[in-house]
Each structure stands twice: as C-alpha cells, then as structure tokens.
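Record type: monomer structure entry
Structure origin: computed from sequence
Chain ID: A
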Amino acid sequence: MRSPLDKTPKERGLPSGGMRKSRIVLAAFVPESPAHRCKLQGFCDYAAKAGWNVETVFNIGALGQSITSLDELDIYDGFVIDFWPLYHIIDPLRLQRPVVSVDRSFGDDCGIDTVMCDSRAVGVTAAQELLKRDPASIAFVAPALDWNFFETRKESFISAVEAAGRDVLVWSIGDKDDRLAERQRLAAWLRSLPKPCAVFAPNDVVAVAVFSAARLASLRMPQDVAILGVDNDELICGSCLPSLSSVMVDFENAGRIAARLLDARMADADAGRSRGPDRHETYGVLGIASRGSTRVVHQDEHPYLQHGLEFITRNACRGISVADVARAMFLSRRAAEYAFAASGRTIHGAILDARLDRVRKLLLATSAPLEAIATSCGFSSAEYANPLFKARFGATMGAFRNMARKGR
C-alpha cells in the first residue's frame, strides 16, 4: 500500500486542473529578529492574496518533538523555511513537497529553491555612502563568524572603495571568550586609524561592537569615527547615542519572492509537471537609514546641536515641540533655535523632515496601509501628510510606494 505522500492530488481528494486549490503551507521563521518578521510579513501578504492557510512555526522544540513520521507533514502543500534547524526535519526529496529556503544556500539538485540577500549590493551601497564623507581612512570590521554573506559584503565593499581610488583597512574580531580584551584591542586599532575615519560593519550587531570600542577609545562619533551597519534593526540602532546608521535591506520582498517561488512549485505539483532545476533568486537594498553615527558635522556647529538632532530622530513621531527639543539641548528656546539656524535649518523643519523620512522608510520596508503609516509618524491623516510628502519626495505616498516596488 502506498503512503499518502505517494498519492496524486486526485487520489488524495484534492482538486486538479483549472480549479485552484485551497493550500496550507508551513512557514518557519525566527520570531526574535525584526528582519525575519519582515520576511514573514511579505510572505503572509502574498499568501493572503492567494487565499492560502499559513501555519507559522517559531519553536523548533515544539515542532521537532511532535514529528515522528513523514506522514504527519502530509497536510502541508509546501514549506518556506528561514529557521536553519528545521532543515534537519524537512527533506524535500523524501517529502515530495516544494520547499523554499530564505537566506541559506544549497547545492544544485537538492530540491530546494532559494531566496538570498544580494550581499554584493549591500557592500556597494555601504561604500557609496561612506565615500561621500571623504574620510581620511576607511575600514571594515569583520565578525568572528565564517558566514558567506559576511565575506561577500566585505569583498564587494572593498572592491567598490578601491574602484574609487581608496584603500580599506580590515579588522577581524577574534577571541569571543574574552570580550573585554578583544574590545580593548579593537579600541586601540580604531584609535590608530587616521581621522576622521569611516567604518563599515556587515550587520548592526557588529556595528554596536565597533561603537562600544570607539567609546572605550574616547573617540567622538561621528566626528572622529563614522559607523555604518546593516539590517536597520531600529531597536539596536536606537540603543546607541548617537544612533547608528544602517543599510536597509528589502526583507519584506524576500518573503514575497519566497511565496511566489513556492506558488509556482505547488502549481507544478498540482498539474503533475516534473520538477525542473532548482531556482535561485535574490532580494536587494532599499537604501540607507541615515542617523547620527554618519552625520556630517560642520566645524562651526553648536556643540549641543547633536543632542537636538538625536532627540528629534528618536521622538519626531511622538508629537514633540520646539520647546521639547530645546530642553533636550540644555538651552533656552531662543538659543536652540539659533543653533539650528546656524546650521541652515529650523527646529520645526527638522522635526517635519524626520517625520517624512520615517514615512518614506515605512513605505519602502512595509506593506502597512497609508493611513496607518501617516498617523504612526505624527500626522493627523494620510490626506494631510500626502502634500507634504509630495513636496519633499516628488510623489504622493501611494505613487512613491508603487514606483519603488516596480523598481525592485
């Protein structure tokens, strides 16, 4: 007697031919990571439009302990996995079900389609951003992890900087067991670099380590050291003062691409078509989330201007006033306004710019409704925000999002 896995869709009582079936798919992601949640959001957006039932799994223990045979996975039409331990359980060649992997590569003919971050684009984007500062030295700090995408980001960053006629100094974080000693070594190295210097870290966690070492070395940021990370984890980036700039990666699009690949494979299975070669696609970069760690500081600016700009960056969408900013700068309102005016800005204008920048980031990085984005950024409505956004970016919020997605 054949197992349920060997039966055709018709034998299993499922519709075939032109009728689209109601699918149930298993999506496994890491809940602790905002990046992984964005990927899941993109996947679920596609799934909702396609009418799929999505079962999300976050805990390897709960899933691993419950599976005793492959037959238990027969209820699923396909799998998308962004949680590495699950690959030990789900074998597409034995399951005969489509599997799409997000951010883990496999060899050809293993039966898994993949969606990978375009790490070369990450490195090039970082190089272009830091070269704008024309620093005296440019550096890359590598983590103590032998991950291919870190190496690719490093190589592409170095190539892009060298193409501009500059050199890159590289530091590799070593002993993980003695964090203080390693931090002291990194601090000494940062202190030795020609100033001002610009440092690229291949993710935000490494960027925080660089930030900590720079503080230990009594270096000013961004005046002495400008730091740029990757992933735009707002909780991590906002934990530093000044807050960290970061390369924004198009994580939601990763989920949408994974869903599209899975949809095509499930349609092939329903139609009885033989499985073709493994498919491999990439998702790219949205731009730079510019914050205090890479801000260009003018020689004659007020020493407390940084405090005001940081306060605005963190609180612009919370209904702050000019008086609130002045208090954060430890100045009178008049003195605070003078400090901003000397830099060619007004406090009110800086608050509005920060709100609009936040709208732009959410339009690029999420699928949230326009009204929800506008109100979350401190505007009374999308109708009120739209003309302001258009004056700044040349298009309404909806048009801007549509153009950005067409360009992906």
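Annotation 1: The longest strand covers residues 112-117.
Annotation 2: The chain has 16 helices and twelve strands.
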